[in-house]
UniProtKB/TrEMBL annotation:
UniProtKB keywords: Kinase, Transferase
Sequence similarity: Belongs to the glycerate kinase type-1 family.
Coiled-coil intervals: none
GO MF, one annotated term: glycerate kinase activity
Alphabetized PANTHER family for the sequence: GLYCERATE KINASE (PTHR21599)
The organism's place on the tree of life at top rank: Bacteria
NCBIfam families linked to this entry: glycerate kinase
Biological process terms in GO annotation: organic acid phosphorylation
Name of this protein: Putative glycerate kinase
Length: 372
């Protein structure tokens, strides 16, 4: 059979699969680009196997694209606002009564210029507008990818948008539609809302916050959680995932009874990985930088876990722009761990898209030669 990209909804087959399941290399390669680079390098070495490319995301940028490839559906345009309340058009994915939402579509850091980054001003209002539109369209099942946001407002903007669109009384408690919906959050973040590991202290500096802003943001989130806890009679601010997407995770769990799951695991379930593993020779995966944090629920670690728990364990090979803690990664079960960036190459050069793809092709081809 000729090697090539296969449909994700495949019948059970008798030939062997080679699964390419790269995360995006932030700043230089999308998941699809990394998969394609690996495919072009491996094709000559495994001419009789079928290459299956799985575009993946942990819930951040690329979540809609990856989920659409997995389950189909159609994209619905929504007039909304970016983190600075400028009018933009975003999208959500609809499949039956299910809406798949990528919060980065309206609240993403990529929507701002570097000099515009300011989590004291950035709002999640636009994400609320997308959610409200999907509810009004009849959607009742929500799968929401958290990640890549410019915001650290604990979801206050999102809640305000839902009230504006769905509660003429101005009270969130009067939005009956919320109680008809089920919300599943996709994220690899396990941080709580507040404190040393909270949304502000861990993630706000990446969004333009200085030390003083971090203190204010953390205190603002803490006060909001205290008021919310008194109103509802329970507090979900310390639960795993509450700190995701600048606290959007908390707001959705506290106000909408959302459940938080690994984005990577949700997507792998949607594409039917467990069905593919029994006839898979090996898996290639990768990310921009692999280190000890990779083993804390990031996409390659989730893939490794699924492959190891298969009836016949499948070897997983990890390629990354940079690698540290290699011995820990190998001890965790990766069959091999390789850095694709030549030691003499500057970071600026390595982050160029064409250079990153060339580096990945070279690294995978070198591994393919040795695997024969």
């Amino acid at each position: 059979m000729n090697a090539g990209f296969s449909s994700l909804r495949l019948p059970i087959v008798t030939y062997m699969n080679i699964i390419l399941a790269f995360d995006s290399f932030k700043g230089c390669m999308t998941s699809d680009e990394a998969n394609a680079a690996a495919l072009s390098a491996l094709r000559p070495y495994f001419p009789n196997d079928d290459f299956i490319s799985l575009p993946l995301s942990d819930g951040g940028e690329g979540w809609l694209t990856a989920y659409r490839r997995a389950v189909g559906g159609h994209l619905v345009p929504v007039a909304t606002h970016d983190p600075m309340m400028r009018r933009i058009t975003a999208q959500y994915l609809r499949q039956g009564d299910m809406a798949v939402i990528e919060v980065a579509q309206a609240s993403g850091l990529a929507l701002l210029q570097p000099e515009e980054r300011n989590p004291m001003r950035a709002t999640s209002y636009g994400t609320g507008e997308i959610m409200a539109r999907a509810m009004l369209d009849g959607c009742r099942e929500f799968v929401i990818g958290l990640g890549g946001t410019a915001t650290s407002d604990a979801g206050i903007g999102m809640i305000r948008a839902l009230i504006d669109a769905l509660a003429p009384s101005g009270r969130f408690d009067d939005i009956e539609m919320i109680h008809q919906c089920r919300f599943t959050l996709a994220s690899d973040v396990t941080n709580p809302l507040c404190g040393e590991r909270g949304a502000a202290q861990v993630f706000a500096p990446q969004k333009g916050a200085d030390a003083a802003m971090v203190r204010v943001l953390d205190e603002r989130a803490r006060r909001f959680a205290e008021v919310s806890a008194r109103h509802f009679g329970y507090d979900r601010s310390q639960e795993a995932g509450a700190g995701a997407a600048g606290g959007l995770g908390y707001a959705m769990m506290q106000y909408m009874n959302a459940t938080c799951r690994s984005g990577a695991r949700l997507l792998l379930q949607a594409v039917g990985l467990s069905r593919l593993l029994p006839v898979t020779r090996f898996i290639l995966t990768g990310e921009g930088a692999s280190d000890a944090q990779t083993l804390m629920g990031k996409l390659p670690q989730i893939l490794l876990s699924e492959a190891q728990n298969s009836h016949s364990p499948v070897p997983v090979y990890l390629f990354a722009g940079q690698v540290s803690a290699r011995e820990r990664l190998l001890a965790a079960g990766f069959a091999d761990v390789r850095a694709i960036t030549p030691v003499e190459q500057s970071r600026t050069e390595a982050l160029k898209s064409d250079v990153a793809q060339r580096n990945l092709r070279a690294a995978v081809a070198d591994w393919g030669t040795l695997s024969q």
